[in-house]
Amino acid sequence: MVTLWVVNACSSLGIGLAGCGTVGSGVWNTLACNGALITERAGGDFHLHISKILVRDPSKSRDITGQVPDGIFTTDWRALVADPAVHIVVELIGGTGDAFEIVAAALRAGKPVVTGNKALLAERGVELFALSKETQTPIHFEAAVAGGIPIIRIVQDSFIGNRILSFYGIINGTSNYILDRMTEVSLSFEAALAEAQALGYAEAHPALDVNGWDAAHKAILLATLAYGFPIDPASIHVSGIEQVRPADIHFAKTLGYVVKLLAVIREHPDGAVELRIQPSFVAKSSILASVHGVFNAIAVQGDAAGEALFYGRGAGQNPTASAVVADLVEAARSLGQSSGHRGFLPYRESGRMLPVGETSTAYYVRFDVTDRPGVIAEIAGILADHRIGISGTHSPVNPTDPDAEFVDMVFLLHTCPFGKLQAALSKIETLDCVNSCPVVFRIESLG
Amino acid sequence: MVTLWVVNACSSLGIGLAGCGTVGSGVWNTLACNGALITERAGGDFHLHISKILVRDPSKSRDITGQVPDGIFTTDWRALVADPAVHIVVELIGGTGDAFEIVAAALRAGKPVVTGNKALLAERGVELFALSKETQTPIHFEAAVAGGIPIIRIVQDSFIGNRILSFYGIINGTSNYILDRMTEVSLSFEAALAEAQALGYAEAHPALDVNGWDAAHKAILLATLAYGFPIDPASIHVSGIEQVRPADIHFAKTLGYVVKLLAVIREHPDGAVELRIQPSFVAKSSILASVHGVFNAIAVQGDAAGEALFYGRGAGQNPTASAVVADLVEAARSLGQSSGHRGFLPYRESGRMLPVGETSTAYYVRFDVTDRPGVIAEIAGILADHRIGISGTHSPVNPTDPDAEFVDMVFLLHTCPFGKLQAALSKIETLDCVNSCPVVFRIESLG
């Protein structure tokens, strides 16, 4: 019997690594560790090596394995992209300035690009995806969304035969860590954030994590792939976790929920796409409620595949490097092929986003009110005027000061369009007993 | 001889569907429903249509959408494979006889193959994978393992940069359904099986489901991909759920566990691969314990990606069709490419399987004993002779007959090699107070 272990000529493919911080070092180390295994699995077709590294300061010491060849570092991105020994460009410098230039230049030079830059693709993806099509040069970005979960490829390849009905995702590990610590050990938001920073989970300037925009960038990429059209970041509703208080966590618990920052993406029967990022009450019995710490999870509903859920590490050096390396293999396989790109890119000119005002769920609303008779009646009256049903209301006694003048008052509201709620809230805000903007969380029924 | 199909602007690619039962009809319907969307996502490169269908009885009525062209049915598999209008062959007839001939003939004709036949690949994969390499014609089999979970592609592509440290999988939906119903509503094994059959989850002859071999075939495929060498089904340990009794379910609950049929695949530091299918106690707090009904889930640990878990429908018409369609797109993309195969196949001649005797866990063992003084002492004495530690023992009173002569006696044992346990059990079986073979479940710590 003929057993044919075909070994072709093994090309050595050079990688130009733009950025050698946490993830870049992880890519170096993963290739150093598992490079031979990758070549074996790829049927001996190619060997990947890093031939050029773009850094700000070549003299800085780095946590990378083994010998670094002389002259591998450069501070000039043009030199990196133009280097004939660079066949594939990996962009890991972040931001939307130089990163854009590097990616665009690589595509124009016909060099496949691998990037983990969600902000770049969410904000300037339209230009870059068009350039990728024009140059027939692929751009891969598994590392941009939930590093350790191969959700990009799942959407681009595995679910290609499905209309995607919805995504429900926990896709910002920092926010999930903070909410989890607030839930599990009753930390305040500030204490949980400080802990996340001390552990290296949150940046020194964690604005994009806690304000929801990191999750929003990822959700835009998922929705763009699933529904095929570019999505303007200005068209979506994003609210972060800065306003979550221990009182909210406590209430959620009492009612059988946990608070999660959820990215919700849904296609409505008329084709309109709902996309929003908001703190949400999620039933304790749902699998998403069991996603702890910095883990990410994405529940996907396909019309053929049914319900599926993908869970893993959303960030960190090695999980993100794992995603970059998978994309490098994909990029390597596409070199020399007539039709380079497998993962699809936006395939429609435009589509309709559902205005957030038309999205409906139940709600949890917390008001900061002056504690005097008639407060509930006044708020409930305005809600009634707007035909919004109340399923419960509660005003906890302040344990440290039972006679406090200002108290939190919580309303649980039946399902209604968010626009209707907003109209009612803007009226309620004008009441003299209401002292600040109400805080609104969604109550999601995950089915 | 390799035939390259040149793909022009939107080629219409013909599929030869061997088998038009549940999954085959699902493939037809998915393409009928989402074919245009698939073409859009594929950049308009190709359109997939079913051009030939192999059936036993062309006159049988089928649950498929829309008009079926005249002459599409054939009863001759050779005609299907040879048909010049068939560019890709889908094998869904099952078994290892004709199915083998069809797959082999298609590969020899240079026609990519998509199959969902786990038994075929687990038992005759060595020959077929070698033929795929020899003919440079891809064979895709996402549908063979956990239909709605794209685990094959995750291992072949997304985790290609990882050494895979372990899989822990619930990969037989029928067994999980039966155990779940025994746990949640206290059904007997027989009643739960009858329910699964009535609902269409279990076949009329469910032997491969309940004896563990369906899960074993899938686990062999996963391990073959992860570790790269062919695995002889005779080299692995498989035990099914036929021996699970309500008493076991009850005990597990009391101790904070649920009983699951687990496929465990692990690479040991010396490179030996552990692969076993056994009923197992899984801690209630683990995500795998929350996998209910016919759902499947696979926890994967990669050295770079870390822990990940993939959850979804393991079987059924549409989830399996979704996997077949994803593979069809992959196959279509490979037509006309010089190097067709992306997903890797076995890449090593051989490797070492860890004998089951050398695998270690804690255990739950149930004995059927004659209730007389000294029974525990005799059993415990033999365990002590074998240096096996006991963490607990219990003999439940039979509520319907407190003076019953025969009773169940349960021992919880500390971690030891399975071989040591087997040696002790074969001694214990010779005791005259022990009436039948002991029943052994693993107690898995999922970390």
Q: Give me the count of strands of chain A.
A: 16
Query: Could you name the CATH homologous superfamily of the largest domain in chain A?
Result: Dihydrodipicolinate Reductase, domain 2
The CATH class of the largest domain in chain A is identified as Alpha Beta
Total domains of chain A, how many?
3
- CATH architecture title of the largest domain in chain A: 2-Layer Sandwich
Low-confidence parts of chain A: 1-8
Q: Indicate the radius of gyration of chain A in whole angstroms.
A: 25 Å
Major sheet characteristics of chain A? 10 strands, mixed
SSE run of chain A:
EHEEHEHEHEHEHHHHEHEEEEHEHEEHE
What's the end-to-end separation of chain A, in Å?
Answer: 54 Å
How would you describe the overall organization of this protein?
Two copies of one chain form a homodimer. With 447 residues, the first copy, chain A, is an alpha/beta fold. Chain A has three domains: 11-147 and 318-334, Rossmann fold (3-Layer(aba) Sandwich), CATH 3.40.50; 151-312, Dihydrodipicolinate Reductase, domain 2 (2-Layer Sandwich); 357-444, ACT domain (Alpha-Beta Plaits). In chain A, 34% of the residues lie in helices and 24% in strands. In chain A, strands 7, 8, 9, 10, 11, 12, 13, 14, 15 and 16 form a ten-stranded mixed sheet that branches. In chain A, strands 3-2-1-4-5-6 form a six-stranded parallel sheet, sandwiched between helices. In chain A, strand 1 (11-18), helix 1 and strand 2 (46-54) form a beta-alpha-beta unit. The longest helix of chain A has 20 residues, at 22-41. The first copy, chain A, is elongated and about 80 Å long. The relative contact order of chain A is 0.12. The interface between A and B is large, with 69 and 70 residues.
